[in-house]
Amino acid sequence: MKNFSVGERTLAYDRIGAGTPLVLIHGFPLDHSIWDKVVPPLSVHFDLIIPDVRGFGESTSSASKWSMNDLAEDVARLLDHLKIESAFLAGHSMGGYIALAFAGIFPGRVRGIALVASQTAADAPEKQADRVKQAGQIARDGTGDTVAGMTAKLSSDVQVQKYVHDLMRKQESQGFIGSLHAMAGRTDTMAVLAESTYPVILIHGDSDALIPIQRAHDVQAAVPRAELVQLHEAGHMPMLEMPEQATEGLKRFL
Ligand code: MLT
């Protein structure tokens, strides 16, 4: 991976392929490698920029808390570093929250947004409180309980479960804690898409146990031009469970 410094922090990323820039932003609590299966076919069409989000993979953190807007600023820093003015953004779950925060701050830098198993809705107050509690539990006891609790919810495919379990176990607790605070504090971003004119793609499994496909239907209702790629029997990890269909979904940007 390549990297650059932001103050005391390192932001790591991969860059592969040629074409219009497309940033692939992973979700919680994972790293850039979740996209590995879709990178080869997409790299034929796009200049793929694939960061590790702050606190995950090889991207470090220097604080214990940050906001979704801070993570969006990291994406802007990465594009600035690469001298790229605007890009398509595809965000998986929390990565979608980052893409939407970026679009809210830098609308002119967005060529299109794909939400992969993600949503525009903010957390309900109980969910916010749960996230803050969970961050405290991780700070005390480590990430084991959170990883154990999430694994089966991410996918019903046992091979995917094993892969994401091992990937989550590799991540530092700092990334979990900072991301939980960022997710708890995020705002509703439906207006960001409703007021935009760029393409919007929704790639969502109809068996997603973490973010129900209804959230994609909600976006479609508010943003009629949003295209839904509904993946039958896929869970929360479409790029691992159905990589060919996820690739075809992202190629709708072309
Ligand atoms: C994710 O998969 O990125 C997160 O679980 C999403 C969330 O908790 O809202």
Helix/strand-derived class? alpha/beta
Strand content: 15-25%
Shape call: globular
The largest sheet, given as strand count, sense and whether it forms a barrel, is: 8 strands, mixed
Unreliable residue runs:
none
Strand order of the largest sheet: 1-2-4-3-5-6-7-8
Count of DSSP strands: 8
Please compute the radius of gyration using only Cα atoms.
Answer: 17 Å
Order of helices and strands: EEEHEHEHEHHHHHEHEHH
What's the number of helices? 11
Distance between the termini: 26 Å
* Helical residue percent band: 40-55%
Arithmetic mean of pLDDT? 98
Bound molecules: D-malate
List keywords for this structure.
254 residues, alpha/beta, 8-stranded mixed β-sheet, 11 helices, 43% helix, globular, binds D-malate
Would you kindly provide a written description of the structure presented here, covering whatever features stand out?
- The protein is of the alpha/beta class.
- The protein contains 11 helices and 8 strands.
- The protein has helices spanning about 40-45, 70-80, 95-105, 125-140, 145-155, 160-170, 175-185, 190-195, 215-220, 240, 245-250; strands at about 1-5, 10-15, 20-25, 45-50, 85-90, 110-115, 200-205, 225-230.
- The chain has an 8-stranded mixed sheet with strand order 1-2-4-3-5-6-7-8, sandwiched between helices.
- α5 runs antiparallel to α6 (about 160-170).
- It is globular and about 45 Å long.
- The mean pLDDT is about 100.
- The structure holds D-malate (MLT).
- D-malate (MLT) binds next to loops.
- D-malate (MLT) binds near residues 27, 93, 94, 183 and 210.
